C-alpha cells in the first residue's frame, strides 16, 4: 500500500511538472499584446517626460515598440536599464502582467533648481545634484541660479568644483525651508559669493559665501518677519547678512 501511494505521489508530481512546463512553453510562445507606460508625476503634478518619449526610447533601443514580440524574447532587465539611462528618469520598473501586456513604470528625477549660466548653459539640477536637460513638455517654476557658474560634472559632490557644491547646498537649504522656498526667486553667483533676489520687493540680499549659511538665513528670516512689517518691502536697496550677527540695510 505504501508503495502504491508513493508511486501515485510521484506520478502526481510529474503531471504537475509537465503541466507547468507546458504552460511556460505556451506562455513563452505568446506575443506581447500591448505596451503600457505609467509615469509618476512630480510634486508639482507635471511630467517632464511623457509616453511619446518612452516609446521613442524603446524603439531606438530595440527597433520596435515590442508589441507583437515573443514574450520569451523580452529582456525586462535590459529594458529597465535603457529607460533608466534617460536623463529625466530616476527609476524604471518593467514587468509583464497576466494579460501579456508589457508595463513600464517610471519615477522621474525631482528638479531642485534651474541653472542659467553666463556661459550659456541652461539646465535643471535635481535633488541629488544630477543634471537634467530642459523638458519640451513643461517648464518647472524653480529657484533660478544665474551668473558665473562652473560647468556641471557628474561627480562634483565628491571632487568639486567647490563653487558648484556650494550652489547645490544653498539650493537645498532654500528649498527645504517653506518660507524661503516661497520668497527667494533667484540666486546670482558673483565670484564666490551669492546675491539673493526675492520675489517681492526690489531689494537685493548680499549673502556672501556659504560659510555660516544657517545663521545668515535665520537673521534674514527675522528681518523679514520683524522689520519689513513696519518699514515695507521697498524701503531698502540692499540687505547685507555677510557680517556676523548683523543685518545691514542700505536705503534707496
Q: What do these coordinates show?
A:
- By secondary structure, the protein is α/β, with parallel strands linked by helices.
- It has eight helices and twelve strands.
- Helices cover 37% and strands 27% of the residues.
- The chain has a nine-stranded mixed beta sheet. Strands 1-3-2 form a three-stranded mixed beta sheet, with helices on one face.
- The longest helix is centred in the first third of the chain and has 28 residues, at 2-29.
Question: Can you summarize the main beta sheet?
Answer: 9 strands, mixed
Uncertain runs:
17-27
Mean pLDDT metric: 89
Give the CA-based shape: elongated
Please tell me how large the radius of gyration is.
28 Å
Helical percentage: 25-40%
Structural class: alpha/beta
Q: What's the β-strand tally?
A: 12
What is the string of helix and strand elements?
HEHHEEEEEEHHHEEEHHEE
User: Reading side by side through the largest sheet, how are the strands ordered?
Assistant: 6-5-4-7-8-9-10-11-12
Number of helices: 8
Percent of residues in beta strands: 25-35%
Euclidean distance between termini CA atoms: 105 Å
Show the helix and strand layout:
Blueprint: H1 2-29, E1 34-40, H2 51-62, H3 76-84, E2 89-96, E3 101-108, E4 111-117, E5 122-126, E6 131-132, E7 143-147, H4 156-159, H5 162-176, H6 178-183, E8 184-190, E9 193-198, E10 204-208, H7 213-226, H8 228-231, E11 236-240, E12 248-251
Amino acid at each position: 500500500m505504501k508503495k502504491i501511494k508513493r508511486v501515485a505521489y510521484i506520478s502526481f508530481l510529474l503531471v504537475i511538472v509537465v503541466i507547468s512546463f507546458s504552460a511556460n512553453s505556451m506562455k513563452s510562445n505568446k506575443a506581447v499584446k500591448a505596451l503600457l507606460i505609467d509615469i509618476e508625476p512630480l510634486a508639482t503634478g507635471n511630467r517632464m517626460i511623457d509616453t511619446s518619449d518612452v516609446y521613442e526610447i524603446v524603439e531606438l533601443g530595440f527597433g520596435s515598440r515590442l508589441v507583437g514580440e515573443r514574450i520569451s524574447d523580452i529582456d525586462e532587465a535590459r529594458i529597465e536599464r535603457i529607460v533608466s539611462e534617460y536623463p529625466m528618469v530616476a527609476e524604471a520598473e518593467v514587468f509583464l502582467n497576466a494579460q501579456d501586456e508589457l508595463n513600464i513604470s517610471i519615477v522621474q528625477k525631482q528638479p531642485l533648481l534651474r541653472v542659467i549660466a553666463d556661459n550659456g548653459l541652461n539646465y535643471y539640477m535635481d535633488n541629488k545634484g544630477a543634471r537634467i536637460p530642459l523638458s519640451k513638455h513643461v517648464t518647472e517654476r524653480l529657484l533660478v541660479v544665474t551668473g558665473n557658474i562652473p560647468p556641471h560634472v557628474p561627480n562634483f559632490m565628491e571632487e568639486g568644483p567647490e563653487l558648484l557644491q556650494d550652489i547645490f547646498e544653498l539650493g537645498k537649504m532654500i528649498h527645504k525651508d517653506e518660507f524661503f522656498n516661497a520668497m527667494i526667486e533667484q540666486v546670482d553667483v558673483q565670484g564666490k559669493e551669492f546675491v539673493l533676489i526675492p520675489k517681492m520687493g526690489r531689494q537685493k540680499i548680499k549673502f556672501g559665501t556659504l560659510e555660516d549659511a544657517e545663521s545668515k538665513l535665520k537673521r534674514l528670516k527675522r528681518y523679514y518677519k520683524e522689520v519689513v512689517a513696519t518699514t515695507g518691502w521697498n524701503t531698502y536697496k540692499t540687505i547685507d547678512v555677510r557680517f556676523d550677527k548683523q543685518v545691514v540695510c542700505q536705503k534707496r
